[in-house]
Write a structure and sequence with these properties.
20 strands, globular, disordered N terminus
């Protein structure tokens, strides 16, 4: 490709009224489609000012800004193309191509941009082959979660992604990961690509293949992460990042990570070595935190002292969990109920105390239906319980989780944890933690709104001999600096933070090392 493709007879400039019309049409389309319909296609429009900032940055990093061959595989109504016409010199745009899967959006965009030199292809990007090569790719790929993709189609997409990029993605990967990896076949050598996408790929397991590709197959030169409190999309609660790379053999030994502010004027900027990135599982720690030391010194982690399990997923909380009044009203045998803590948002206490029976002393006392008898025995011996179970046969019993069990009403057997952690929350201020450790002195189990901590055998034996240590350990966990937990967790738009069991297990807890020598 070269300047022979330049359409010198046509100069495209952006009429301000066109951008106003685009925004108006975008709003109409957003209103026309339900949020559920748009989520199935991952349709979350890029704000105008952000689009211009991204395009401007991309042009500055091109080797040939006087010969722009532009490509957008998820065009929508054309926010990035509009920005390109605003930010680039008109006669520097020699070719522009875009793909849009939604025929409604494609038709609207084709009419809107008919006189502005962009070829819009109405197709599924993951099903088509390149028509040419391009040197500037800017895209806000569809944010479609894996469970919204048909299993057969998902496997087709996965195979094509691996064929093109060499990267084998997990079935849990969102569609945006496939878009990024498949786009490499549309890029000319030395082309610049900027991807506005969820920052979750930086931390989750399915993102490892994407990160490996960025470090070994292309030249990754910058990742900008927005402050999680600055949600880029009003209708998608995600924390966003912009990933910048060139299609060329990686030669750089470091990558610039920026955070907050703008691409050109970030609040924080730090250069991270490629070797550190290869070792680090959680890229979201950069640039706010330092690179981890590459020494072999042992640092105790929570997994050395505790097992961490997600709380019970009942398959239907409204059916299986009830208070004492409801149990009595239905005449159900209390012997088949065990105490369970209310959802974390209803538990303000930092310590759960218990009555003489081991039930938690809380304003809201709840119990989990936990019967291990087979249907025949329940029908014969407990007619009222059988009647209640029958009432859920056509609803709860057909749910995904319940129908996989030997008997649909069986619950996972889980002991009461001595400490539980709220796995999702927000910081009230910069000195507070988004997560709470709660001391559980009761016999209550927990649902999946908590993570349950169970001491490993050595620590369990120590606590059995000296029960007061349970409180000491709990106080130590709550005394951790917020960053220690947030460093291992993940963050979403609006400042929502979340930590999974494996992430909590990986938290450094040097203060617990002394307990290992008490044996």
């Amino acid at each position: 490709m070269g300047t022979q493709n330049r359409r010198s007879c046509t100069v495209w400039t952006l009429d301000e009224s066109i951008e106003k019309r685009r925004l108006s049409l975008q709003n109409e389309l957003n209103t026309y489609k339900t949020i559920g319909e748009r989520r199935r296609l991952g349709q979350f429009a890029t704000p105008t000012l952000l689009a211009r900032e991204i395009v401007s940055f991309g042009i500055k990093h091109m080797d040939t800004p006087s010969d722009i061959r532009f490509f957008d595989p998820a065009f929508g109504t054309g926010a990035f193309y509009s920005a390109l016409l605003e930010e680039a010199k008109a006669d520097n745009i020699t070719k522009a191509t875009a793909v849009e899967i939604d025929p409604t959006f494609a038709n609207v965009a084709s009419d809107l941009w008919a006189d502005y030199g962009v070829n819009i292809i109405n197709a599924d990007f993951t099903k088509i082959t390149p028509d040419d090569s391009y040197n500037l790719i800017i895209c806000n790929p569809p944010y479609v979660r894996h469970h919204l993709i048909d299993a057969g189609r998902k496997e087709e997409i996965r195979r094509k992604t691996e064929q093109i990029s060499g990267a084998s993605l997990s079935g849990l990967a969102g569609l945006y990961c496939h878009f990024l990896l498949q786009s490499i076949s549309w890029m000319a050598e030395g082309a610049v690509a900027g991807w506005l996408m969820p920052s979750e790929f930086m931390d989750v397991n399915y993102g490892r293949a994407v990160k490996n590709f960025l470090l070994t197959h292309v030249e990754l030169f910058q990742i900008h992460r927005f402050s999680p409190r600055d949600v880029q999309f009003d209708d998608a609660l995600v924390s966003s990042a912009i990933v910048w790379f060139r299609k060329k053999k990686p030669a750089n030994q470091s990558v610039t990570f920026t955070y907050g502010g703008s691409l050109d004027s970030p609040q924080i900027s730090k250069v991270i070595s490629v070797e550190s990135l290869k070792r680090e599982n959680k890229w979201s720690r950069f640039p706010c935190l330092a690179q981890r030391s590459n020494n072999n010194a042992f640092v105790p982690k929570l997994k050395d002292y505790f097992e961490v399990k997600r709380g019970i997923a009942t398959g239907g909380n409204n059916f299986f969990i009830m208070d004492e009044a409801r149990i009595l009203e239905l005449g159900l045998p209390f012997e088949f109920f065990r105490p369970v803590l209310p959802s974390a948002r209803y538990v303000k206490e930092s310590e759960i105390k218990a009555d003489e029976f081991g039930n938690p002393i809380l304003s809201q006392r709840l119990f989990l239906l936990d019967c291990r008898l087979d249907e025949h025995e329940i029908r014969e011996r407990y007619p009222q319980l059988w009647s209640y179970l029958e009432s859920g046969q056509d609803s709860v019993a057909k749910g995904y989780l319940c129908k996989t069990r030997k008997y649909w009403y069986f619950q996972e057997q889980r002991e009461a944890p001595i400490i539980v952690c709220t796995y999702m929350g927000r910081q009230s201020d910069e000195n507070s933690s988004a997560f709470r450790f709660i001391l559980n002195n009761s016999k209550a189990t927990v649902t999946n709104s908590y993570l349950a901590l169970y001491p490993r055998k050595l620590l369990s034996d120590i606590i059995a001999r000296k029960p007061s240590l349970k409180r000491t350990i709990w106080e130590m966990l709550n005394g951790m600096t917020p960053d220690r937990l947030h460093d291992e967790g993940r963050v979403y738009g609006g400042g929502l933070q979340k930590i999974e069991p494996k992430e909590l297990l990986n938290v450094d807890v040097p203060f617990l090392e002394s307990f290992s020598v008490l044996e």
